[in-house]
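In response to the reviewer comment on reproducibility (Comment 2.3), we provide here a single inverse folding case reported in full, input and output, so that an independent group could reproduce the run without further information from us. The structure tokens appear first.
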């Protein structure tokens, strides 16, 4: 992949002089580093309506800081470019109009260089604002939200460019190395949990001070005794599902899922290609043979649910998943984006006393619909559109993936997507009732 020159926050006129300023610079630089392996043409392409061009991601997260921070706190505010207010607004109706999502790839101007200048201008102004209003709690809270928002788009940048590059017959890679090493397969084991009343939701003492509003309020819920698999379902196990007619057996599928299989002609996970008796898949490192010992990924909720039914098990609820995650080992060796693998990895030394890989590698589908917790209240103003209005027709995923920035996910983090989507690094872990 061609690299292009990207400005670094260290070259900005004003240097960060506070922990929050340093954090701001680090997150913003990470976005540029993730885009650096891409050519301007790569940054322009939009491969489907659900995905966005890299250029748009870089501009939209900048729009967030300009709109929610600079416009609110900067004296004598003037927009970098008034046209950007509509062009890079994603879905905030309280802010105003938005350019149609499905047509973002058609907007060739402003060019990538213009977007990078936009970022540099907003970054310089944000650092000045942080210096002028040091200690402002309201400002700090909005900046922190904006940084976590940018980390979400860093993950989307990777998943979206992976989808875009998959259409090339040359199988180009985003990265230049293939990280998978030979590891012995780990037998699937089961861990039991007694259940009972469980505190579900964000815990500042264990999860850190920040959370999204959909992780609150913390509340008690009852969990029946259950068992959870020691690791995610592997690619090799998914091959067995395919070989047993998994995509041809309507009794395994939800009604909408079976419609999805038939209407879409689905016969394998996204990106898989069969050549004689071997399976290959598109990765961020190019096309590779499917490693049977790595966690299965790019699965829709429909596929995850069908597999669980085929395996004589089920998907965990999000309360069960969080209960197990609270008792798991720390995330220190989890495979997040910072590892540079950008692909689910096999585990070499699984613990014997708790499930492994609950964090990183693949987002794990749960059987829980994305709904508000009891007592949830939408935040006032346009920021309230961030999560609350999507609490319908979505399913919850937990744990983070190999494209998630380290430190972004936590035990209470609730990701959510419609049940038919596949382009995220989504997999599954089996659960079952405990007798």
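Designed residues, in position order:
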């Amino acid at each position: 992949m061609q690299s292009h020159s990207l400005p670094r926050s260290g070259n900005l006129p004003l240097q960060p002089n506070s922990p929050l300023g340093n954090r701001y610079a680090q997150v913003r630089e990470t976005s540029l580093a993730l885009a650096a392996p891409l050519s301007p043409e790569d940054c322009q392409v939009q491969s489907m309506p659900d995905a966005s061009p890299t250029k748009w991601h870089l501009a939209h997260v900048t729009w967030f800081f300009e709109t929610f921070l600079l416009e609110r706190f900067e004296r004598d505010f003037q927009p970098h470019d008034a046209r950007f207010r509509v062009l890079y607004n994603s879905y905030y109706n309280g802010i105003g109009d938005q350019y149609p999502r499905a047509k973002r790839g058609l907007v060739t101007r402003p060019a990538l260089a213009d977007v990078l200048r936009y970022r540099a201008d907003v970054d310089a102004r944000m650092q000045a604002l942080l210096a002028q209003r040091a200690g402002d709690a309201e400002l700090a809270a909005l900046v922190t939200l904006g940084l976590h928002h940018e980390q979400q788009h860093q993950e989307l940048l990777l998943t979206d460019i992976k989808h875009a590059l998959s259409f090339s017959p040359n199988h180009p890679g985003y990265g230049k190395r293939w990280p998978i090493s030979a590891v012995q397969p780990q037998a699937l084991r089961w861990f039991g949990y007694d259940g009972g009343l469980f505190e579900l939701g964000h815990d500042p003492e264990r999860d850190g001070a920040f959370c999204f509003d959909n992780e609150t309020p913390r509340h008690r819920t009852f969990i029946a005794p259950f068992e959870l698999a020691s690791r995610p379902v592997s690619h090799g196990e998914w091959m067995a599902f395919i070989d047993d007619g998994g995509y041809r057996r309507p009794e395994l599928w939800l009604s909408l899922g079976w419609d999805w299989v038939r209407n879409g002609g689905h016969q394998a996970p996204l990106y898989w290609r069969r050549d004689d008796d071997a399976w290959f898949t598109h990765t961020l490192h190019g096309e590779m043979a499917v490693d049977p010992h790595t966690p299965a990924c790019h699965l829709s909720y429909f596929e995850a649910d069908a597999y669980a039914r085929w395996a004589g098990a089920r998907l965990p609820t999000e309360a069960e998943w969080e209960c197990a995650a609270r008792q798991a080992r720390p995330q220190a060796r989890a495979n997040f984006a910072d590892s540079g693998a950008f692909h689910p990895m096999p585990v070499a030394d699984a613990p014997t006393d708790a499930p492994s890989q609950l964090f990183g590698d693949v987002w794990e589908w749960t059987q829980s619909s994305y709904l508000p917790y009891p007592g949830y209240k939408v935040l006032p103003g346009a920021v309230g559109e961030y999560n609350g209005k999507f609490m319908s027709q979505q399913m919850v995923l937990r744990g983070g993936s190999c494209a998630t920035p380290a430190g972004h996910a936590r035990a209470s983090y609730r990701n959510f997507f419609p049940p038919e989507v596949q382009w995220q690094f989504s997999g599954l872990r089996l659960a079952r009732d405990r007798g």
